[in-house]
Design brief:
About 45% of the residues lie in helices and about 10% in strands. The protein has about 475 residues and is an alpha+beta fold. Strands 1-2-4-5-3 form a five-stranded antiparallel β-sheet, sandwiched between helices.
Amino acid sequence: MNDKQEQNQAGNEKMTSSLKESMAYLNERLAVDKNFDVVYRVIHMGGREACIYFIDGFCKDELMQKMMQFFMAMTPEELPADAHEMSKKGIPHVEVDLADRWQDILYAYMSGVFLLFVDGYDRAILIDSRTYPARSVAEPDKDKVQRGSKDGFVETVVFNTALIRRRIRSTELRMEMMSAGKSSRTDIVLCYMEDRVDHKLLCQIKERIKNIKVDALTMNQESLAECLYARKWYNPFPKFKYTERPDTAAAQVLEGNLILLVDTSPSAMILPTTAFDAVEEADDYYFPPITGTYIRLSRFLITLLTYFLTPTFLLLMTNRQWIPENFQFIVLKEQENIPLIWQFLILELAIDGLRLAAINTPNMLSTPLSVMAALVLGEFSVNSGWFNAEVMLYMAFVAIANYTQSNYEMGYALKFMRIITLILTAIFGLPGYIAGVLLLVVSLVGNRTISGESYVYPLFPFHAKRLFTRMFRTRLPGALPRSKK
């Protein structure tokens, strides 16, 4: 038996009532001589020896000082006889628990819980006095709205659950804690309404989380998403919707959806997710029905244009006889030095390069570099003959229009489909254009949500009344449930 197997076997064992044995085991497992932030201190408590363990930076200093003063001031008469009585009557703190298995004790300790061991007690006392480094709940940069709440999720999962609890004051709201990852033991919270959630989907998600066999969720939510939905990875359309807004997450919970919150991630996973969910935003509901409907339909139309604009232009330029006389102005004014397909593909790559550069550019340099990029890559690239002005115009529209909806996964899915359609159109002409569009339709219709339902419901299978509510904003709050059932 190797060292890891011995440690795992020891982790499932129960602790003894001997303080010296407990300290010897913990000091070895926690490597207290190497980890500077692993702190322990032996104290005298009611005539007995006791020891406290905590991680520096995870405990509140003022509370720790008061707790130690209380423990050290206890007399033998005030010290309870066992750990259970001590946890109920002897500790002036709200969140107190007990554990006797080393696996549970170590998990609680590595999560930041304060441990108290007393000689003669056969269980460790877990005092939850954690405090995590956290930023303020400011409005997220990505999910901004013109009107509505200005708070957002943060990296601490307890804060995120509180933001949802603040909006849903119902006894039917459930917050179930689970964990995944052998080494990371990442906390995962399942948030749902007991009387509205699809319990079949809920059981499936719980079972999948329990069966996750990974060492760590290194990329938190993305790692969890890939573990939950392993099939059809080649279909680029998003299976999950992410939001950093508590109001959006609360609305989805009230509609019967399931929300997954992952510790250290400032966003919530919404499932199941359809194509209509992916392009929906909070601004649709923060304005009156007419305005909200206009915003929603505009987003749908612009999203479709980002896919169809450049392949259609390429098709028409290779078949100029199809262009009506009134639209002859769209014909290229100058000779093309580089084939149009290569111009489009180069610009598709260049736009992503500019996006990545903008992310890594220091704020103090963003303005001058943006001006320089606009001059060099805009005007000079056209004057040099590399690109035609019309191609630059249409690609600029596509690049800007992609930001009309905040779902990055949907934007990249349409980008991949657009590139495939461009290539097929350049090679095969009209049949290639039709094949590219059919590929898009098949990818959407053939896709399934994580619950196994149609990805484009209520368009397919067709349900007129529910399709109307998905396209047009009405005054009825939650007029129809989104599930087919």
